[in-house]
Design brief:
single chain; 157 residues; alpha+beta; OB fold (Dihydrolipoamide Acetyltransferase, E2P); 5-stranded mixed barrel; 4 helices
Length: 157
C-alpha cells in the first residue's frame, strides 16, 4: 500500500517528541508538538490511495484525548514538584517535638521528633517536656527552639 513519506516522517517525529518529553523537562511543549505531529502525519499518511481516507474526526479526537491526558499528567507532575521535601534535612526543619530533658544553651541533650530520639542543642533554655521546633540540622544533631506557638504539647512527637 503506498503511503505518504511526509506523513510517515511526521508520525515518527511525533513519537520521537513524545519520547523526548519523558526525558527532558519541557513542561509539555514537546508532548503537544508530538501530538500535533502524530495527528497531521496520520491525516497525510494515506492521501495517495484512492478510496482510503483517514477520518479526520477520529484522528483529531484521538489527538485531543492524548493532549488531555498529557496535560493532566503534566499538571500532576508540576504539583508533585512544588510539594515540600518529605525526606532529608529539608524535611526536618520546622518539625515539632518535645524535650526529653532540660536543655541549656550550648549543651547537648535529647529531644523526641516524629517518634525518634535525636541529639539536640538550643540557643535558649528549654524545660523538660516542653515543646520544641527544629530550626536547623547539623549532621545528627538538631538545633531546636522553644515552641511558643503550641505550648500545650507537640503533636508530631
Amino acid at each position: 500500500m503506498p503511503v505518504s513519506t511526509a506523513g510517515l516522517l511526521l508520525i515518527l517525529f511525533g513519537l520521537a517528541l513524545l519520547i523526548v518529553e519523558i526525558k527532558v523537562p519541557s513542561f509539555g511543549v514537546l508532548g503537544l508538538g508530538g501530538i500535533v505531529s502524530l495527528a497531521v502525519g496520520s491525516l497525510m499518511l494515506t492521501d495517495q490511495v484512492p478510496g482510503v481516507a483517514p477520518r479526520p474526526a477520529l484522528t483529531l479526537s484521538v489527538a485531543l484525548a492524548m493532549a488531555a491526558i498529557l496535560l493532566f499528567l503534566g499538571r500532576l507532575a508540576m504539583r508533585a514538584h512544588r510539594q515540600p521535601a518529605s525526606t532529608g534535612v529539608a524535611a526536618m526543619i520546622g518539625l515539632r517535638g518535645r524535650a526529653l530533658a532540660a536543655i541549656e544553651p550550648g549543651l547537648p541533650t535529647q529531644v523526641a521528633v516524629r517518634g525518634e530520639i535525636w541529639n539536640a542543642t538550643a540557643e535558649a533554655p528549654v524545660a523538660e517536656g516542653e515543646p520544641v521546633t527544629v530550626v536547623a540540622v547539623n549532621g545528627l544533631t538538631l538545633r531546636v527552639a522553644p515552641d511558643r506557638v503550641h505550648p500545650q504539647g507537640a503533636s508530631s512527637c
